[in-house]
Amino acid sequence: MKKTNKIWTIISFEYITRVKSKGFIISTILGPLFLITIILVPGIVAALSMNDTSKKIAVVDDTKIIVDRMIEISPKTFEKSNKSIKELKKDVLEGKIDAFVHIPVDVFEKLNVTAYTPGGGGLAYLEKIENNVTQLVREKRLLDNGFDEKVIQLVQSQVNVNSIKVTEKGTQKDYTEFYSIFGYVLGFMIYMLMFAYGGIVMRGVINEKVNRIIEVINSSARPMQIMMGKIFGIGAVGLTQVLVWITVAIAISFASSSILPMILNNSTSNLPAGASGSVSGLPFDIPPIPIGVWVAFLFFFLMGYFIYSALFAAIGSAVDQEEDAAQLQTPVTMPLIIPLLFMPAILGNPDGNLAIILSLIPFFSPIIMTARIVATSVPFWQIATSVILCLLTLYGTIWFASKVYRVGILMYGKKPKLKDLIKWVKLAK
Question: Which residues is 167 bridged to in the sheet?
Fold first, then answer.
């Protein structure tokens, strides 16, 4: 049988066996649900929680000045109380109020207030207290120093920045925030896919080695053919799954502009008129994702998968059981984790030196370059350089993995170390 035919036979077996499995079908269905959840649900939840009035906070104001303005700003949250602090503590414990704030007479000098809570409850309402009191104390201090009230209001007015993207065809709405979040999502998906499918390759090699199946296969095909057949076969499974997810994502992208308003209208029909209006006025339209983004996602997913799965296959061939692989996995898994640690900084400045340098490192490129391509306009030379370096790294990892695989599948009863794998590369010449 020809070399290509042997590899194709292994690819077909791996692909058909895994695609027909229940695990593949379930994960393929759950993947889009996960995508829908991380893209749509946070926006809906944020909208519906904007006017959350469940927190009731009593205010004890020794200055007799601030409390009325606090109620004026947030009438559904704050209420004036003439009770003693001891009585209010009891009300908190009995659940009659969620919290209470004590504003001392010297707040304008010492800038300190005390919030009494039952513990927990999140940071949102504490920030609300701080922001309200800070604003009112600032107003009072400015008034005391001779500033006109109208001038203070003018100074404190916030400026809304409307971001418009300039293109060769004209101008359009800028979706920087969405694309930054989506870049993180795609980068994280590539991380999950590389880790998951690389692990499948490793476990598959270990199982075949432990059950001596590899020895039977080795009699009819060369180790390199076996390894490549397994990597490409499982890779085809991953590619099938990703293509299904991309199709769903594109459908979501086009449908979201009509789905979200419908959901929000139904969900906010019982809210007060002002609350409903503020929710419906929020920009929940999801912009179309350029085809180039999906092409980059597919390419860098495949590059990352092949680079890491080759290394995982080498690790699988070197051990007799999965528990023994932990030590050897560390040098492989660390380059997968590092990009996620830098992702917030990179997406905060996707054109910065840190983002450029890390996106050109082949072991980081699949995650970071994908995120950058989504979040900003990456120069062509950087993408081209990343592609070339990834291809060269892929060649090197396959060469290294094939050498280790050739010796490792025949080694039993030993827990190898990293230096042993280096020796095997020399032995496999």
Answer: 170
Closest CA to 136 of 60, 67, 62, 78: 67
User: pLDDT tens across 258-294, in order?
Assistant: 555 554 455 444 444 444 444 444 444 567 778 888 8
CA-to-CA dists, residue 332 to 152, 228, 324, 329, 354, angstroms: 58, 19, 15, 5, 22
pLDDT given at position 45: 59
Position 54 scores a pLDDT of 59
What pLDDT, on a 0 to 100 scale, did the predictor assign at position 215? 59
Residue with the two structure tokens 């995650």? 367
Q: What are the residue boundaries of the structural domains of the chain, listed by start?
A: 6-34+176-257+285-427, 57-156
Mean pLDDT within 152-163: 66
pLDDT digits (tens, 9 = 90+) for 187-209: 888 998 888 888 888 888 887 77
Question: Two tokens at 185?
Answer: 């999502």
The CA distance from 389 to 375, in Å, is 22
**Spatial distance between the Cα atoms of 99 and 113, rounded to a whole number of angstroms:** 13
- Counting residues of the chain whose pLDDT is more than 70, the rounded percentage is 76
The CATH code of the domain at 57-156 is: 3.40.190.10
CA dist 281 and 266 (Å) reads 15
Structure confidence at residue 339 (pLDDT): 92
Residue 226, φ and ψ in degrees, nearest 5: -65, -50
CA–CA gap between residue 168 and residue 195 (Å, rounded): 40
Buried b (16+ CB within 10 A) or exposed e, 315-350: bbbbbbebeebeebbeebbebbebbeeebeebbeeb
**What is the length of the chain?**
429
Strands, sheet with 114-116, edge to edge from the N-terminal-most edge strand: 78-80, 57-61, 99-103, 114-116
Alpha-carbon torsion, ordered 85, 89, 95, 101, to 10 deg:
50
* Inter-residue contact 103 to 66 (CB < 8 Å): yes
Greater confidence (85 vs 165) lies with 85
Q: What angle separates helix 124-144 from helix 149-156, to the nearest 10 degrees?
A: 140
